[in-house]
Amino acid sequence: MGKKRKQTEALEPKAEPSPPPSRPPRTLTGWKDGAVQDPDEGGDNTFFRNKEKVLVTCSRRINYRYRHLMLNLVSLLPHCKKDSKVESKESKGSTLNELVELRSCSSCLFFECRKQKDLYLWMVKSPGGPSIKFLVNAVHTMEELKLTGNHLKGSRPILSFSTNFEESAHWKLVKEMLTQVFGTPKGHRKSKPFHDHVFVFSVVDDHVWFRNYQISVPHNETDKVDKGGLDKMTLIEVGPRFCLNPIKIFGGSFGGPTLYENPFYVSPNQIRALEKKKKASKYATKVKAKTRRKMHEMENALVPDEFADMWKED
Amino acid sequence: MVKEIENQEQESESEPESESEGEDEKLSTEPSKNAIYNSEALLEKIEDIAWPKKIDWIHKLTIDHPQVEKVDVDDDLARELAFYTQALDSTRVAFSKFQKFGVPFLRPPDYYAEMVKSDSHMLKIKDKLLYEKKMMEEMEERRKMRENKKISKQVQHEKLREREKSKKDEIESVKKWRKQRERDGYVKGEKGNNEVFGFEKGDDVFDKVRKKRPGVAPFDRSGGKNKGKGSSKGRERRDSKFGFGGRKALKKQNTAETTNDFRGFRKGGDTGSNNKKRKRF
Which portions of the sequence form the region Disordered (chain A) (predicted)? Predict the structure, then answer.
């Protein structure tokens, strides 16, 4: 660990000969509060170093499609560590927290697959930070042939957010988490010094939509785009695509007090149950209609007609 | 059991394709009343995890893009276009920022490194694109052929009518000419004056040709000179095959060489060249 620190500091020539930022004290249960980042009382910008590390893992019995999505994300995030599958039931407990700490990560992406069809994504800041639970929809993996772009592995992405992330507190939090988890730290040893792709996060219909585009722009030099090149710039989609529906935000990591609950959220189980019910209720409605008709007839019995036997003889 | 799982997988595969938000919306017309929203705690949490305010943009690389108009989620094209324009605009902003910094940020052409998608995968993509292009071209060609056929039919029709008309006109002109001559004072019945051409009467001109030459096949241009002497190619071939001039049975038997010789086997059979049904898609 110490060795790495020296390397990265050698890369930044402007660093003053002051002692390197001391490593935050560590307790048995993890980092001390707020110690993931360097303390900003240092004042100088050059001291900031993003040491984000993301643990990416998934539950057992995950669908192949969702597993591929996870692997795609692993290939997109050079600052992540992939771990083996975790038993779903354990996710309730503190095992995941322990695991994150064990791998010395500061955040975690946990893909939880239920019933082989629903994918939930936990986005967690590890020691004390919040955790967000999303439902993942509209998944397209990078393997799809219609997504024709390609880019360097480990180049740092440009993160583009739509401005409606600023509209409310929970979206702000989501934005902050996304920037920290999806942004590759500057000067990370696996990252490449060029920028050739862009992540798009957009809030549409109360969902976060994710897209990844390759940037292709005409250029001859490495630090300048050709004249008028910015207008000629085109984007090619690389994938993956997915859509995140926030369900809940918790105060702790993998638990804690609920800070936000999506009022519009309906679980896919409920949707399916409703659909099933609708199908099943065809016969029931018929029977009901019949009894109602009978009741109606009983209640409003026909008045005996006084002219009924008018034309009868006698 | 395995089958069941497969079914489920297929379902789950088809579900995200259709972007099943539509159902969501129907169900969630009214939000639940007792949903928790602790905005103070949320803001506090942001403070907790946020990076220091003063850090350079180069650490974050975030660009905010104002969403101009509301995007319709169910309209796939409009939605994707909105994302694309967002990406494009924010990339332009980011690149102009990079240029201001003056640090290299574009990949030089001689910089080779591992890509996100493997070469074999990219090859697959390329193949698919080429195939699609070929299909498009073929379709275009077929469409053109169909149109050409239509046009050529029309042209043929026109030509026939034209020919008919010109024939009629010529006959008419000859008649006119004859009348003119008569009026001019040529004596009727003089030699060479009163012939009636076959075509004027409308009978078959070739009748004479056919009747005059007994023993010659109709339309035999050589006038029966070839008769008995030369024979057609087909005749020759049949002769060689079925034994004109000697017993051929032994020659027709298989030998070791001929059994191992597959050159003539299924030569140009129905490999699709004349199978129109298969070709059609």
Answer: 1-44
